[in-house]
Structures are given as C-alpha cells and as structure tokens.
Model the fold of this input.
Amino acid sequence: MATSLSTPPHPALRADLPGKRGGEKSRNLTLALIVIAFAQLMVVLDTTIVNVALPSIQRALSFSATDLEWVVNGYALAFGGLLLLGGRAGDLFGRRRMFIAGVLLFAAGSFAGGLATTSTWLIVARVVQGAGGAIVAPTALSLIADTFQEGAARNRALGIYAGAAGGGGAVGLILGGLIVNYLSWRWVLFVNVPIALVLAFAAPRVLAVSDGRSGRLDLPGAISVTSAMTLLVYGLSRAATQGWSDSVTVATLGFGAALLVLFILIELRSEQPLMPLRIFANRNRTGAYLLRMVAGATTLSVLFFLTQVVQNVLGYSPLQAGFAFLPLGAGVVITAQVTSRVVGRIGPRVPITVGALVVAGGLAWLSRISDHASYVPDILPALIVLSVGLGLIFFPTTVVAVSGASRRESGLASAVLNVSQQLGGSIGLAVLGTVAANVSKDQLANVRPTRALIGQALMAGFTTAFEIGVVIALAGFVIALLVIRVRSPKPSTAALPEAA
Done:
C-alpha cells in the first residue's frame, strides 16, 4: 500500500494553531528544531568526544589497552540496547515528557563521569549516559515527525537532524581536542551538563505536547536484547586478548546468541512487544536499518582507529587530532543538506547506493596508509570521500525509516533506526578492534619491540581493519541494490511504500 512520505502531524501539534501569527509560528518551529537538533548532536557526539581523551583517561584511571574500549562501548551498548525501550516509553508516556527525562538522566551520567576516580566508576557513568541518550534520540526524531508538516519543511528538518547525527561524531572529536588541550579530560563529560540543563529548560517552552497512550513496557524484551548485545560485544572484545578458543569467550558469545533468540521469541509471543516484528515487513525500511548498521560500523571504527593513528603514530596533540577530523564532520553535514534538497526529486535509492560505494572507496584509501603517512596527502582525501559517502546515506535512510509508520509507532521506527546505527557501531568496533589487535600482536611475535616496530605493527592492524571495513561497505552497496526499491517519489506526494 502506498501512502505519503510520512503521516501528518496530530491536529494538536500543527503549526497553524489558532491565534498564532505567521512570524510566531515560524519562530516556534525554528526554536523547536534547534532544541531537537542540539539534543541529537549532544547524544551522538558523546559517542566520540571521549575518543580524543582516551590516552589521558587511560593514564589517569589506569585502564588496560583492551578495557579502554569500554569507555566507548559502555556508552554505545547502553544507548543501542535501550533505544527500543526509550522509543516505546515516548509513545506510551508522551514524547516531550520522556525527552526531558532523558536529557536530565544524560546530564546526571555526564556529571558522575566527570567525577570518576576509578575505571569502573567511569564505565558505569557512561552506561547511565547511554541510557539517557536512548530516551532522547528516538523521542527527538519522533518529535520532528509530529511537529513538522509533510513536504519541504519536514525534509529540511530531517536534513538538519541527519546532519547532526552524521556529523556529531567528528564534532565530538574536535570539541574533545579543544577541551583536553585547554582544560582536562573530565570536562569532555562536564560540558554536557549545562547543555542538557538548557535543553531541559527550553523543551517545555518550544516543543509541542504529545499525549501518551495506554499500554505497558516490555521489560523482559528490553532485558534480553540489552543483555544479548552486551554479551556479544564483550565476547568479541575478549577474543582480541584471549583468542577465539578461550572458554569464557565461547560461552559469552553463546549466551549472547541464546538471549538474542530468546528476545525474538518474547516479541513473537508478547501482546505488547517492545519491537513488533511487523515493522520489518516493509523491505525498504529494513534495508534502511541495515544500511545504518553499515554506516555505524564504519563511522565509529574509523573515528576510533584514526584517533589512535594521528595521536600515537603521527604524534598529534589532542587539539590537532580533533581538528584533523573537521573535514569529516563538515562534509557529512554539507552532503546531508544537499541530499535533503534533491531526494524529493530523485528518491532515496540512488543516494543510498552511491553513498555505500563511496564509503567503500574512502576505506580502501585508508587501508593504504603506513606509519610514515602524512595527513594532507594520505588521510585528508580519504576523510573527504568518507564524509560524502556517509552524508549520502544518513538523510535518505532517515526518510525511508520513518516513512509509512503510523503516529503511534513512529517512536519505534525512530528507535530501531538509532539501534541499527549504535549496535552496528558497537559490533563493528568490537570485530575490527579484535582483528586489529590480533594482527598487531602477530607482527610483534618473536621480535624485540622497538618504537618503530610497534608503530608498524599498530598500522598493520589498523589497515587490516580498514580492509575489512571495505568489505562491510560493499555489503551495504549490495543491500542497497537488492533491498531498497524506492526510486523517484510521486511529484505531488513524495510517496514511499508502506508496509501493509
């Protein structure tokens, strides 16, 4: 069945409220978009803002090299694992109410993390941050669908949202570099607190009220899927140090897979499932979710590995490392904005397909760098290529994912989109990190390690990870070709197919 690009907003949320003048309507919508975009930017950039601070955090809190990944993965796993619950909570209890609650929880986790004196304390605080982000992200995207009318206005809003989602990672690296250079690593967490408090103050004044509806939260489903993802990523990370034959690694991966199967069974039997499997009946939406997993895996891995390259191999300071990623963030934002203006004419399929292929090209470029690489000739062009590819993916997949979802399930559709990106990032980083660590370890086996040999071994591991990233991006290209069927929308409605 075909419907318009997305469902019209609830009458109570329309921009043309009685008694409002045109200027005030425009101002309110602009302020609402600013609040939503800043919230999304804050949540996404926190996935990477600590990357630049990782060497400082490692020294201050005595992290081991492998445990250091959990400063990133603790946040990403809680974020990805609880997104479905956060989206469902917004549908049931009101999106604006849950948006504010999520922002405040995020602020609490950030404040606690900034005060951390042990590695465990910091990881727990990052998990709390991730839980807050899991509430904010799906409700923010749903609020866009509720607030902005179908057509050019909503496409522009989604373009800004997609730019924040796509560029937030690189912005986090820049901001992290500035903070670590001039303040301390603790302020990469403290900085979120005033931003979150301003958002919580502004939200009830500029965001439309959305009533909840009757129902209950599927806590067994939430617990099983979050536990499954945590065990799977932990098992993949452990394989980097203990090997694939280690009994704990095998048991962890096995239990994680079993819990994932249990989650599917719970959803099939539940009267009010956390993730109704019918949402995947629309092949275009399913394809968008898979492409966001690919984008998440490549983005987080590139940011993580290149941060290590520019600081530990090229010798950049945290500030220099942050600015080194400026072209990536700027390119994603610019490309997402351009794509948002043309997708109404050519449809989302072409940008998504081309984007996946361009990302593969950028990763292939990175796979050729060595420990003697220089930034301008070797890394900068690859970052520009990657930024264009990711920008071509982020906006169209956002449009496809929320299209055709009923208003009561827009929070779910939004949550699954974010889940796809976050879990793709966590699993991708765990897999590629394991590969990189094993390659580096093999390079140093039976040799006397020197600074030069260590640098070569690290680069060998990173470039091997980038090579596997090429394969992942090409898999996304194949998915876009075979699964995405939306081509050019109807001129009058920009229609996308909806699941029956």
Summary: Strands lie at 2-3, 496-497. Residues 58 and 65 are 8 Å apart (CA to CA). The chain has two domains: 2-10+22-217+274-497, 218-273. Residues 218-273 form one domain.
